[in-house]
Amino acid sequence: MTESTSSPLEQQQQLSLSTEAARTLATTTKSVPQMQEISSRWLLKLLPWVQTSGGVFRVNRRLSYTLGDGRITFTTTGAEVRVIPAELTELPALRGFDEMAALEALADRFDQQEVSAGQEIVREGAPRDRLILIAHGRVSRTATGAYGDEQNLGVLADGDHLGEQMLTESGEWEYTARASTACTVLTLSSRDFEQVAEQAPELREHLQRWRESGGQAQNDYGEAEIALSSGHSGEPTLPGTFVDYEVSPREYELSVAQTILRVHTRVSDLYNQPMSQLDQQLRLTVEALRERQEHELINSREFGLLHNADLKQRIRTRGGAPTPDDMDDLLATVWKGPSFFLAHPKAIAAFGRECSRRGIYPQGSEVNGHRVPAWRGVPIFPCNKIPVTDTRTSSILLMRTGQENQGVIGLHQTGIPDEYQPSLSVRFMSINEKAVISYLVSAYYSAAVLVPDALGVLEDVEIGREG
Questions:
Q1: Between β-strands 74-77 and 80-83, what pairing exists: parallel, antiparallel or unpaired?
Q2: pLDDT (tens digit, 9 = 90+) per residue, 283-315?
Q3: Global pTM?
């Protein structure tokens, strides 16, 4: 006997309407177009925005004297490193000296040295007989404290220098400098410097004027001093004074991010249910413009916060990864009412690992209904616009905000023609022969740091170290 078997068609006989067929009669519920590029854009939300009616914002300050503490730039040819002669004027004693022949003679006298990690470069108490320029690497400085303990004086790196006092006076090293990593340094001995000075009378005259003046009368911030008298009695003659202003204050022009949005009239006319095609095209375009705006506020070389932080306000991590000690050092640079930290999400994660390693669990902070990490009560906000280098290092920013606080402010202009959002306009341009409508979408913005100590940057933050 043979068993009867049913055919595959009989086994799969359909007893009801399939879902695939039913969908042809159903209305689909749709989402608006999604976009991965959209971020929290905390910087745009937290910056106080100042109306810039004329398109230009001028930052008036008290007159400040340049202190000459900038970083020095080098040129590299193969393995040979040479200091750019004009860059030597970043040294305090050579500020304003423009005799290129003497500067080139000084640059030629520098000797290149390779220093291995852990090697001592200068020792505390030894004669200060060298000027040292750090071309590459990291150098840590320590000194003996009042109670005999070792104190950390911070880290120097590419472009920094040691022993610039040698140019004007003799003395001893006040600290010990040791290479934290392999370093390339350029050194100028006091003997070589004196030989150049003997052959360059204009250099000797410049240094003599520097010694005699002792620098201009200024306060701790480099501002022209206001003469005051206190603690006196009787009828002494009081000093006369006035507050001097910068003759050429810096002006910030509003920058712009623009694009031309194109929509075909057929699409705009026929395909607008359940949502407007023009509205969605415009929404996503505006989101992209705002993302670019935040990127420029961080990275623009003209007004971006990373490039406009004062050199005295830039510090480096002690050991690479962002530790609580590093964050405290950053707070010490912006100690007058800091508003918030801004860091790449990976840098925040690296800081969290360092806290966990030490058994520290800082309390978070609630801002506008959002729970964010904080340090010493100052919230830490994520910003993916802060770059991460190929060596997996980044930066952490700390700022004080507000015009009344002499802090960091955003600049924009509201009330512009065809305004769609504050300081963002959508302007109809034309309909071409192919029935394509064009709209010009423009966003205007900038940022200003009213005084240098309103912004601090922790540089060379290592984000890839394992916990």
A1: antiparallel
A2: 999 999 999 999 999 999 999 999 999 888 999
A3: 0.79
